[in-house]
Write a structure and sequence with these properties.
By secondary structure, the protein is mainly β. It is 9% helix and 31% strand. The radius of gyration is 47 Å and the shape is rod-shaped.
């Protein structure tokens, strides 16, 4: 036996001498020549086995090649790459690599030695649970950061290319070819190709260290031979299991919003904050933040949700969420402003152990639902225009109404409304004490019952039963309108070609002015009657346009009768351009109350003012209410001076009004 060992030393020395001459050597195979077979003798030196005794079979064999013939590729420099290589070897079907993979997995997790020892031909196996354990332990030394040279994790760190030399007296390992096993041995000049103790012969190693810097598991990259007194890696710390989701609800008066996510200006709304945890584990250490914002106009909720703004008043965020739903509290917001989005965001961070922040945003959109009112007169829609008589005009009347039985606040008319199409959300007979007819459809023609919500009548016959609209424009005659034409200086009929602009004018007592415009009219200021007129000196103003009438959004009062024959009257415009409801400036440009003391007559009237909102209305609202967007006051002062509207006049001896007033 001693002779053979001395011969091996001689052969290895010869090989080293050849290497010095530039001949390539095998990859430092230990005891590659024929070796000896003996019995295992204590003490154990590595992974619980004696020198030259295999891990799986505990049988003696003192020769063999590298544990992994190809060594460890340079690309294996992360935890996942190492895991992939070892598990790939175990599943490769190659006898040596299966043994190597099973051995590495078992030693990394500190699995018990096979008992009783396996036979030489028995399979070297690991369980699925052991593989998962192996993955978790390796990753716990790299789950903080990795840079290709080192990895850092909760349990320690890994050096992927630590340079070191063969220390005499340290432990090394080989693959036992005949035993299909891996066995340890003590490094000595006679047991290691190339000798030991030379600090110039350095090799790269993979080394696992604990948090205190103690070496746990080491293998030389050239051969994947485990070295030293290897110890199992620590298990990763228990990862909490939770999944928290923030949520916000919106309610009004303790119930759901009446119109999805929209409320009227001036309303009170309540935001309810909660966090749900869908797992059976309690989530702790969670950052919880709330944000309050009011955005002008319509705010599209972004993704991710808004994460800045003020802090809501009332609810309190916590950092612990038990399984189920945790209610954080409510916040009530009063008198929400019109044309705004009142939004709240709730964030949790992290939302799950492996996740980042998760936010939820809820917005309530505060709208102005403006409405008009007619006092002292009626509404009529569907009267054919001159030249169209004999054709049914399916015109309707549309507004906003509370649709409340016994109340019907909002859009309405004091007396009657007639339409050849639907009367929608415009109540009739409002504010009258008579019980003979009732709101909302008592004086709606036709006042047949309808099933659709908000339909208060209409469809007054299939044929043109309404009288044809007079030809107010006719063939006008009068003085040409001066270039400078303040209404206070005009008396009698005038003719002009549009566009013509009026505004900031006042008519004196007894002044009678009729203006015919072949084209459009722009009104950019108030037009009023002096308040000192008497019954025998009632002012009269009639503006008759054979086109459109555009009323600037800043106009607040118009006295007189305004006719757009064949055209449209717009109650909010800029010059000859109506302000579109889709415009971002619509609400602010048209947010003035308009009072019309007189009448509007047109092919179509577009009521565009945004002042006030339905939420502040009532059925008995007086004509002085500042919550009404457009108020029409019609009375004797607008038909006594000249009962007929047109280029001709008729004298009356007396006029008597009998009910019903239609």
């Amino acid at each position: 036996m001693k002779y053979v060992r001395r011969l091996l030393v001689f052969l290895v020395a010869a090989l080293v001498a050849v290497s010095a001459l530039g001949v390539a050597l095998p990859s430092l195979a230990q005891n590659a020549a024929a070796g000896t077979v003996g019995t295992c003798k204590p003490p154990p030196i590595m992974f619980g086995r004696n020198e030259w005794c295999g891990y799986f079979s505990n049988t003696y064999e003192d020769f063999g090649p590298n544990v992994r013939a190809a060594g460890v590729p340079a690309s294996v420099n992360t935890a996942q790459a190492f895991i992939t290589m070892i598990e790939g070897d175990y599943k490769s079907g190659n006898r040596q690599r299966i043994t190597e993979g099973a051995f590495v997995i078992r030693t990394v997790i500190g699995a018990p030695l096979p008992a009783p020892p396996l036979s030489t031909g028995a399979a070297r196996t690991v369980t699925a649970a052991q593989i998962l354990d192996f993955e978790g332990r390796v990753k716990s030394y790299a789950n903080a950061s990795e840079n290709g040279s080192q990895s850092f994790g909760q349990n320690g760190h890994i050096d992927w290319f630590h340079s070191d030399y063969m220390h005499c007296g340290d432990y090394n390992s080989i693959y036992q070819v005949n035993r299909n096993d891996i066995a340890p041995f003590i490094i000595s000049p006679g047991n290691t190709t190339g000798g030991c103790g030379s600090a110039t012969a350095r090799y790269d190693h993979i080394e696992f260290f604990d948090k205190s810097g103690n070496l746990l598991w080491k293998a030389r990259r050239l051969c994947l031979n485990p070295m030293g007194t290897i110890k199992p890696l620590s298990k990763p710390a228990a990862v909490p299991s939770y999944n928290v989701t923030p949520s916000i609800t919106i309610s009004q008066n303790g119930g759901p919003l009446p119109n999805s996510s929209y409320v009227d200006a001036g309303s009170s709304i309540t935001f309810g904050y909660s966090v749900s945890n869908s797992t059976p584990s309690t989530a702790t250490g969670i950052a919880c933040n709330m944000y309050a914002n009011i955005f002008p106009g319509f705010h599209t909720i972004p993704s991710p949700a808004d994460s800045s703004g003020g802090t809501p008043v009332g609810p309190a965020c916590t950092g612990t969420f038990s399984p189920g739903t945790t209610n954080l509290g409510n916040e009530t917001v009063n008198n929400v402003p019109a044309n705004s989005s009142v939004c709240r965001s709730l964030y949790v961070n992290p939302s799950k152990p492996s996740g980042g922040p998760l936010g939820y945003e809820a917005c309530v959109y505060v709208t102005a639902r403006p409405y008009f009112r007619v006092y002292g007169g009626d509404l009529s829609a569907g009267n054919p225009q001159p030249g169209s008589c004999g054709s049914a005009i399916k015109a309707g009347i549309v507004g906003w109404n509370t649709e409340a039985a016994g109340g019907y606040g909002g859009a309405g008319v004091q007396y009657a409304a007639l339409a050849l199409d639907k009367i929608y959300d415009v109540a009739t007979n409002l504010g009258n004490a008579s019980s003979a007819v009732s709101a909302p459809s008592g004086l709606a023609f036709a006042n047949t019952a309808t099933s659709a919500p908000g339909s208060f009548g209409g469809n007054f016959g299939a044929s043109p039963v309404l009288p044809c609209m007079p030809d107010y424009y006719g063939t006008p005659s009068g003085t040409g309108l001066p270039a400078s034409h303040p209404l206070a200086s005009l008396n009698g009929p005038y003719v002009a070609t549009g566009p013509v602009t009026f505004g900031n004018d006042t008519l004196a007592a007894g002044q009678k002015t009729i203006i015919y415009v072949n084209g459009d009219v722009v009104i950019n200021g108030n037009i009023t009657y002096l308040s000192n007129w008497t019954v025998n000196k009632i002012p009269l103003l009639e503006v008759i346009a054979k086109g459109n009438i555009y009323i600037d959004g800043g106009v607040k009062q118009l006295d007189g009768t305004y006719i757009a024959q064949g055209g449209t009257i717009y109650t909010c415009a800029a010059g000859t351009t109506p302000v579109a409801p889709s415009s971002s400036s619509f609400f602010s440009s048209c947010n003035n109350r308009l009072v019309v003391n007189g009448a509007f007559i047109a092919q179509q009237v577009q009521l565009l003012r945004t002042n006030g909102s339905l939420g502040g209305s009532s059925a008995t609202e007086p004509n002085t209410s500042t919550n009404i967007s457009e108020t029409f006051n019609y009375g004797p002062a607008f038909w006594i001076p000249q009962p007929t509207l047109g280029p001709t006049s008729t004298d009356y001896d007396s006029i008597t009004s009998l009910p019903p007033i239609l």
